[in-house]
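Tutorial, part two.
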Amino acid sequence: MANNEESRGLKSLFDWFANRKKNGQIGIERQQEREIADGLWHKCPKCGVLSYTKDLLANQMVCGDCGYHNRVDSDERIRQLIDAGTWRAMDENLHSADPLGFRDRKTYSDRLRELTEKTGLTDAVKTGLGQIDNHPIALGVMDFRFLGGSMGSVVGEKLTRLIEQATQRRYPVVIVCASGGARMQEGMLSLMQMAKISGALQRHHDEKLLYIPVLTNPTAGGVTASFAMLGDIILAEPKAMIAFAGRRVIEQTLREKLPEDFQTAEDLLKHGFVDDIVCRTQLKKTLTQLIALHQPSSTPSHNMVLWETRSLSSTVAE
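Running the prediction step on this input gives:
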């Protein structure tokens, strides 16, 4: 008797779930749960701790439990460093051309168009003038979302124009590096940007003006081999991967196993390739102190008007 009642109860329970599923109630509730949870939490890739996304953003995307530095885009980086209301973007309309007619699985021009639609970026760097705790600076921020932050003609042109403008205005330059290196789709034209940016930095240096690169994860290839390592003071974020050639390539060439911390910011600091490792939450304060120390007489420019960039170095398809 009891078994019969139990089976009737189970049957009723199954019927109840079946009816709810048929009426679409379960699907709607699950969809609502997904919508509520989407973007609310963030799981740390290193320690696995769940954090409120709002709290993580307030801590500049640094895990409060283990200190892991999550990657941030260029807009967020500018917001973290530049005083509110002082940012003046430069050369926003520069677009890469496709001089080689490059094609792999799809054409280079199609890739560029798709990335622009997806990210809202015209290329892998944002440049502009702003203030950092009332000190005027010229800031370039590379964005890894756009073809791995690779350096093509537009990246080289925008950074060169930024540096030249900073030299004329006698501003310090800060470039936040995040790149996989030179952009293969532009061949030799991409490699030429290394020399072009380096030349502009040398002229900036000749005027006894400050340049600080900030190396983030990852900084590699032609960027490391040029402007990332030409700073008067070189800063890096904790655990950032900084390299020229890849780890596997070096191991295969040397035929030996490399140390676990090889190509990390900590290893480079130990060997004198970077001057300091600075947590992202302390970066703005550190940059302010360095700028004030090297340019104690600098005064804020509250009415910054961009100088005409048409007279600057090379030409790029717009």
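DSSP finds eleven helices and nine strands in the chain. In part three we will examine how such features are distributed along the chain.
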